[in-house]
Fold this protein.
Amino acid sequence: MEGDCLSCMKYLMFLFNFFIFLGGACLLGLGIWVIVDPTGFREIVAANPLLFTGAYIMLAMGAMLFLLGFLGCCGAIRENKCLLLFFFMFILLIFLAELSAAILAFIFRENLTREFFTKELKKHYQRNNDTDVFSSTWNSVMITFACCGVNGPEDFEAIPHLPYSSLEKATPEACCQRELQSREGMFVNKEACLAGVERFQNRQGCYTVILNSFETYVYLAGALAIGVLAIELFAMIFAMCLFRGIQ
């Protein structure tokens, strides 16, 4: 009976590690895509140190899970106690790190409010100054998502207008409609947009546009994270049971 139980545990361990292996491969692929993607996200990621760091953390986590899943599969099939112990310790560290990150994200979620982004935009945005990381990132976001400001063009009323414009309420170029939503895209009517003609401007705020765009993916990512944590927990339990059962 013990032999049957050990055999069942071994194959369950292999199955869970196979899912970890696949999850690591997905994270690795996603991290590579975010860094090399030519459609605009690479520009945003490169301009924002936080996103840049996050992309490489995702890449590192994916590579680590990919390797650990492979080692776990090998340790389970070959019944190698050294590999199983190595797997258990590293998967425990990853589990604790992911749990800590989830707790911190929950605690600091208040910093992702509409008011916070509006305040930061009005304080740091320098319009077409692409040498400024904050401004360049915001311009890339507004161009990519065809939006303007956090709430709309009115967010820029208190921000000094461009030197060549005598308008009191100048609209940034990034808010002007383009035929293609990229920096290389041609303006529909740049002069009319900067003169305040609303039909040539992107009037919707970026907060609403991005929230609507990623709402489904946020829930999906949350569900995926819970699933990954559950798989890692079961994998650790099976690894320790298999470790204790191997003679």
DSSP finds eight helices and no strands in the chain. The radius of gyration is 24 Å.
